[in-house]
Design a protein that fits this description.
The structure is a single chain. With 389 residues, this protein is of the alpha/beta class. Helix content is 38%, strand content 13%. It folds into 2 domains: 239 residues, Aspartate Aminotransferase, domain 2 (3-Layer(aba) Sandwich); 132 residues, Alpha-Beta Complex (Aspartate Aminotransferase, domain 1), CATH 3.90.1150. The relative contact order is 0.17. It binds pyridoxal-5'-phosphate (PLP). Pyridoxal-5'-phosphate binds next to α3 and α4.
């Protein structure tokens, strides 16, 4: 029996060697490797300013804080996303106002945003879930109409484009993750991109306790013995040079990583075309999918709130069958309003955001990583094709 994980981190010899550089130099905190990684990230995404941070959650928090979001404000967030999207809003004492998704794209439903806007609404966080851009034109039009800040949660967005523009470049900032489930990984890590140079400077300061200049600038300057000014309330959200050296090395093959993921997704599409009870991920010529994950909807029949429990049980049986055969799967992600902290704080019931409820109970992610072999793929395909629901 083969064993196929849901994702696999793969570091090349070059990546392994790259770590030695900061270790040998002795400068291991944020320094020249972070600067190099930022430059490469900017080149790949087309962003004029990139600011590396400790993870995507801190990227979101910092973006909101630097944009002036504060206690009492409301921020619109999709109800089907990783919990971090909403948590970043909570950290500021602001309220995440959940908006349901489209089951077809798994992304925020733009037609449901406007009715959630109140006098307290200050921002929207569209999430490009699983590497598919949210419907950004419609979201930006609403944001402009109501003067709202747009912070893109592009945690899964590496390689994802909307109308040929890399995600993260549409909002005030775009926030990426380098967690091991993501296409580029530094263990933990994040990146903020922005076209606003002044905001980038503020973010650089705020990730580093609010210091006016970084430690590396001070240590390599003429007066390292003078401590800097601290104009902002900052945080320690720095990325280390050890992490950045790995990220920087992976960026040398960024396009290759993206193409390999896309090629595997194409193979899955062909397979799923022949499986009536699975709906493959949304594709459209305006949306280049980054395929952080390959997520289908398990739908042996039309899903409604009436039959969701039986379809969920049936999906779980299918997941269990694959697990017994060594193949890992996962639900796409979770629905925020169903998680205990949010359910209890805001008194949600599952039905409050029905599409997110459906997506959490009926979605299924299959193994996807660049080194997935033909043998592994055939094995997965056989097991799926032979399954009797
Ligand atoms: C949509 C989304 N937002 C935010 C995050 C948080 O990223 P990180 O783990 O880098 O903090 C994740 C991570 O899985 C995510 O999927």
């Amino acid at each position: 029996m083969l064993k196929v994980p849901i994702a696999k981190t793969e570091f090349s010899e070059e990546d392994l060697n790259a770590i030695l550089d900061p270790l040998k130099s002795g400068w291991v905190v944020q320094g020249p490797h972070v600067a190099e990684f930022e430059k490469k990230w900017g080149n790949y995404t087309g962003a004029p300013n990139s600011v590396a941070v400790s993870n995507c959650t801190t990227a979101l928090h910092l973006s909101l804080a630097a944009s002036g979001i504060k206690a009492g404000d409301e921020v619109i967030v999709p109800s089907f996303t990783w919990i971090a999207t909403a948590n970043a809003v909570e950290y500021l004492g602001a309220k995440p106002v959940l908006c349901d998704i489209e089951t077809e794209t798994f992304n925020i439903d733009p037609s449901k945003i406007e009715k959630l806007i109140t006098k307290n609404t200050k921002a929207i966080i569209p999430v490009h879930l699983f590497g598919l851009s949210a419907k950004i034109d419609e979201i930006l039009a609403i944001a402009e109409k109501y003067n709202l800040v747009v912070v893109e949660d592009a945690a899964c967005g590496f390689g994802a484009k909307y109308k040929d523009k890399h995600v993260g470049n549409f909002g005030v900032t775009g926030c990426f993750s380098f967690h091991p489930r993501k296409a580029i990984t530094t263990g933990e890590g994040g990146m903020i991109i922005t076209s606003d140079a002044e905001l980038a400077e503020k973010l650089r300061s705020m990730r580093d306790h609010g210091a006016a200049i970084s430690d590396h600038q001070r240590h390599t300057g003429s007066k390292p013995y003078l401590l800097p000014e601290f104009p902002y309330l900052g945080y320690n959200y720095r990325m280390t040079d050890i992490q950045a050296s790995i990220g920087s090395s992976q960026m040398n093959r960024a396009e290759e990583i993206h193409q390999k993921r896309s090629a595997i997704a194409d193979k899955y599409d062909e397979l799923i075309d022949g499986i009536e009870w699975l709906n493959k991920p949304f594709r459209d010529e305006d949306f280049e999918h980054g395929f952080q994950a390959y997520v289908c909807m398990y739908s042996p029949e039309a899903i409604s709130l009436g039959n969701i429990d039986s379809i969920n049980a049936s999906r779980n049986n299918f997941m269990d069958y694959l697990q017994q055969n060594g193949i890992s799967t996962r639900p796409g992600t979770h629905a925020i309003h169903m998680l205990q902290y949010y359910r209890e704080k805001y008194g949600f019931s599952n039905e409050d955001h029905p599409n997110s409820y459906i997506a959490s109970q009926c979605s299924i992610a299959f193994p996807l990583f660049p080194t997935l072999t033909d043998e592994e793929f055939s094995y997965i395909a056989d097991k799926i094709k032979n399954y009797k629901i």
